[in-house]
């Protein structure tokens, strides 16, 4: 396998020799200032690499030689805490003084401690009842930020001919704005009910839970004529696991432990554009 090692800061040469030895590879090739590729690396060395890379805040990934980004057809992304840095529902709740209460439910749900995502979302949205809908615009304008490397990653995916899907257990208010802003091809999320300019505390239509996320990935692949094994899925929470399991490559981005353990690749330190260096 090829082993790709990445650093958020320039990767110091002092790491080259120990990494080559740990990986038992045949050759080390610089990719850019932040990354190297070690060829003929031994995946059996994963445990030692995990310790070394964790200590030095490096990300590592085993990649089959010859794989290219152009070999994939779809990039499917979670939104909250993946494509963007915030959890939108938590920030909305801040405008009615309930951020801590809502964030605690969000965290438990993403860690997989609350098994029923529908119940988790319904509980959180109910707490927003009566809030002026203008709070959504304020969250988007004042608090929503793209995760590091997001725009570079999307540019690279598009250059490779990939379609992009943003599939979220969050809200269409944000996914639709991001779709227009970033030129995304497909989006799917939950619709907050708004009556007379106020949130009713309810979601309209089918809730986008783990099963729906997985189904949307498969359906989108069918729509564009690619097999799910030619999809890349990125996420951070337990409700992303089923979607990630459908894809040919799964990326855990600054994710909960249960997601890191299940994913093909975990980015704990580098930005989303770390995806491009893998190929």
TrEMBL record:
<keyword id="KW-0378">Hydrolase</keyword>
<keyword id="KW-0718">Serine biosynthesis</keyword>
<protein>
    <recommendedName>
        <fullName>Phosphoserine phosphatase</fullName>
        <ecNumber>3.1.3.3</ecNumber>
    </recommendedName>
</protein>
<feature type="domain" description="DUF4072">
    <location>
        <begin position="3"/>
        <end position="49"/>
    </location>
</feature>
<dbReference type="InterPro" id="IPR004469">
    <property type="entry name" value="PSP"/>
</dbReference>
<comment type="similarity">
    <text>Belongs to the HAD-like hydrolase superfamily. SerB family.</text>
</comment>
<keyword id="KW-0479">Metal-binding</keyword>
<feature type="active site" description="Nucleophile">
    <location>
        <position position="78"/>
    </location>
</feature>
<dbReference type="GO" id="GO:0036424">
    <property type="term" value="F:L-phosphoserine phosphatase activity"/>
</dbReference>
<keyword id="KW-0460">Magnesium</keyword>
<dbReference type="InterPro" id="IPR025138">
    <property type="entry name" value="DUF4072"/>
</dbReference>
<feature type="active site" description="Proton donor">
    <location>
        <position position="80"/>
    </location>
</feature>
<keyword id="KW-0028">Amino-acid biosynthesis</keyword>
<dbReference type="Pfam" id="PF12710">
    <property type="entry name" value="HAD"/>
</dbReference>
<dbReference type="GO" id="GO:0000287">
    <property type="term" value="F:magnesium ion binding"/>
</dbReference>
<dbReference type="Pfam" id="PF13284">
    <property type="entry name" value="DUF4072"/>
</dbReference>
<dbReference type="GO" id="GO:0006564">
    <property type="term" value="P:L-serine biosynthetic process"/>
</dbReference>
<dbReference type="GO" id="GO:0005737">
    <property type="term" value="C:cytoplasm"/>
</dbReference>
<comment type="pathway">
    <text>Amino-acid biosynthesis; L-serine biosynthesis; L-serine from 3-phospho-D-glycerate: step 3/3.</text>
</comment>
<dbReference type="InterPro" id="IPR036412">
    <property type="entry name" value="HAD-like_sf"/>
</dbReference>
<dbReference type="InterPro" id="IPR023214">
    <property type="entry name" value="HAD_sf"/>
</dbReference>
<dbReference type="InterPro" id="IPR050582">
    <property type="entry name" value="HAD-like_SerB"/>
</dbReference>
């Amino acid at each position: 396998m090829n082993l790709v090692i990445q650093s958020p800061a320039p990767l110091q040469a002092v790491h080259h020799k120990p990494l080559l030895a740990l990986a038992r590879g045949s050759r080390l090739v610089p990719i850019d200032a932040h990354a190297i590729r070690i060829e003929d690396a031994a995946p059996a060395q994963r445990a030692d690499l995990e310790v070394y890379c964790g200590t030095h805040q490096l990300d590592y990934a085993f990649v089959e030689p010859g794989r290219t980004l152009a070999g994939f057809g779809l990039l499917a992304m979670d939104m909250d805490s993946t494509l963007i840095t915030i959890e939108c529902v938590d920030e909305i709740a801040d405008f009615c003084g309930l951020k801590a209460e809502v964030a605690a439910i969000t965290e438990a749900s993403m860690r997989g401690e609350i098994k029923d995502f529908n119940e988790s979302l319904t509980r959180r949205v109910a707490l927003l009842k009566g809030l002026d809908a203008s709070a959504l615009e304020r969250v988007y304008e004042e608090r929503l930020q793209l995760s590091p490397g997001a725009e570079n990653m999307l540019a690279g995916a598009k250059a490779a001919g990939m379609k992009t899907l943003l599939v979220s257990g969050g809200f269409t208010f944000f996914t639709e704005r991001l779709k227009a802003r970033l030129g995304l091809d497909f989006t799917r999320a939950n619709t907050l009910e708004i009556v007379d300019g106020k949130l009713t505390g309810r979601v309209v239509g089918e809730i986008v839970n783990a099963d729906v996320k997985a189904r949307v990935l498969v359906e989108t692949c069918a729509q564009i004529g690619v097999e799910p094994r030619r999809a890349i899925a990125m996420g951070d929470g337990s409700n992303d696991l089923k979607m990630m399991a459908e894809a040919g490559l799964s990326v855990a981005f600054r994710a909960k432990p249960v997601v890191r353990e299940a994913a093909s690749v975990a980015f704990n330190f580098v930005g989303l554009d770390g995806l491009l260096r893998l190929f």
